[in-house]
Amino acid sequence: MPFPTPLVLADHSRHRILGVSPGDASARKNIMSTTTQDKTTTVVLGYLKAMESWDAGNLAPFMDDSYVHHTHPTALGLPDRNKQEYIEHWRKTVIPMFKTWDVVVAQKVSDGSKVTLLV
Q: FRET partner for 15 with CA separation of 20 to 30 A, picked from 9, 51, 52, 92?
């Protein structure tokens, strides 16, 4: 079974929330097995590790070719970015701004249909 595609959600509070939607048949029924939860958690932690590596190319395996990044709030007027544009944005803008940023997982929450990490 291929790993699910990470979805990054932000909640405008003091934490960023990173969640993953498993996308398999059991998830559509709002049921996620422990094995699927473990795989999902592994994917999210891998995504966080890729972010922390400060090598934008390490993010690419977590996105398929149809990936589109939407920046919120939309009032910022920033464009949607495809996979390559997002990786370039990460390389040119995000890395220089946050080079000393470390990701620390504060809490893992599973509700049966998704896994959420508070970081």
A: 92
